[in-house]
Amino acid sequence: MEYVYFGCRCLIGVVFIASVAGKTGNSAFRDFVRATRTLLAAVVPRKVSRKAAQPVSVTVLAAEVAVPVALVPAATMRLGLGLAAILLLAFGLFIAAALKRGVRTSCRCFGASSAAPLRKHHLVRNALLVAAALAGMAGSGDLGSAHSGGLVLAGGVGLVAAVLVARMDDLIYLVTPWAGSATLTPQEGIHNVHTHHGGGAGSSVLPAGLVADPGSGTAAEGTRGAPGASVGSRPRLLR
Predict the structure, then answer these.
(1) Which residues of 31-56 are buried (b: 16+ CB within 10 A; e: fewer)?
(2) pTM score, two decimals?
(3) pLDDT at 219
(4) Segment 69-91, tens digit of pLDDT
């Protein structure tokens, strides 16, 4: 089982490295601050300003940096995995609150690759990562008696699993038609609107600030969203 525990450590470490890398850069961090502000507003019963959301975002990013750093030494391995589990649980609670209140925003967990709106599979992803972090804590930090070949294999499996986690939204987009979603843009939240399309009433989702044109079933131009985005069509993720 020591190889399984080591693979879980590699999975968590690479996931958090990818998360930090996805938020690196001015525009990527600004998107993350906007997403954080929206998620905080889903929990806090008052309007959250950008000034309040920015230090929270910086703290989260610093904690994410600390996770892979703590996973390297055997003495702090369990501390890093424990911190990872706490962060993942907190993220899950905020995602659940946003889904319960109907707040349709992206988490920006991995930067531009997480531009899709939050859905239930994000909760499943976090639950599995929490399980992996807790499983990794069951192992020993001392790998002196382990075979190098087994460690390489376990680490490789963890790396592949981490890549799949980081690109989960893109993979699901390839195999699942997200009916009823409009073009997604990196802004704070999405709200539901009702439009008439093809003679029937339907519910579509548009980014905040995007105006629906009931006559044509398209988003009106001159808004913050991409002009000409068809309502009810498969979304195109803007980078």
Answers:
(1) bbbbbbbbbbbbeeeeebeeeebbee
(2) 0.70
(3) 38
(4) 999 888 899 999 999 999 999 99
